[in-house]
Specification:
Blueprint lengths: L1 H35 L7 H32 L5 H12 L14 H35 L4
């Protein structure tokens, strides 16, 4: 159990660092775009930017999910890589999956991935809502004409 907790802690730390870097990069791109020109969130450019931002967030979560899937596969906790990706996606997103696919000595790792995923998804939600609110406020403050 100690090894399992150490591995889980390392994965939580790694995914938090990756997530923080990813959000910082997306925030920097967002600030640059907003500073370069007044971005109207309902314009075609604003909609395209929003879709790009959402896709960036999906890539970030996908990377973290795949890291867990690779780990499960390397540990021999789940033999089939496709099942490992599916298990990781369902666990990370808190949808849930029958943990019988996971070797019993690694089931705690699966539970911790679920908690980790919920926290990272919440962090992403806060980030996205803050950015969308900022764009909306910019639109209201922009001079009409």
């Amino acid at each position: 159990m100690v090894l399992e907790l150490l591995v889980a802690t390392a994965m939580v730390a790694l995914t938090v660092v990756i997530h923080g870097w990813g959000l910082a990069l997306l925030a920097r791109v967002t600030r640059a775009e907003q500073n370069a020109r007044s971005l109207d969130w309902v314009s075609p450019r604003g909609v395209g930017f929003t879709v790009g931002l959402v896709l960036g967030l999906f890539v970030l979560h996908g990377l973290e999910i795949w890291l867990y899937a690779v780990l499960y596969n390397l540990l021999g906790a789940i033999e089939d890589f496709r099942t490992a990706v599916y298990f990781s996606t369902a666990t990370y997103s808190a949808l849930g999956y029958d943990d019988k696919a996971l070797a019993s000595e690694w089931r705690l790792l699966g539970g911790i991935e679920g908690i980790n995923g919920v926290l990272l998804l919440g962090w992403t939600t806060a980030f996205f809502v803050t950015l969308m609110s900022s764009m909306r406020l910019r639109r209201r403050r922009a001079p009409k004409g």
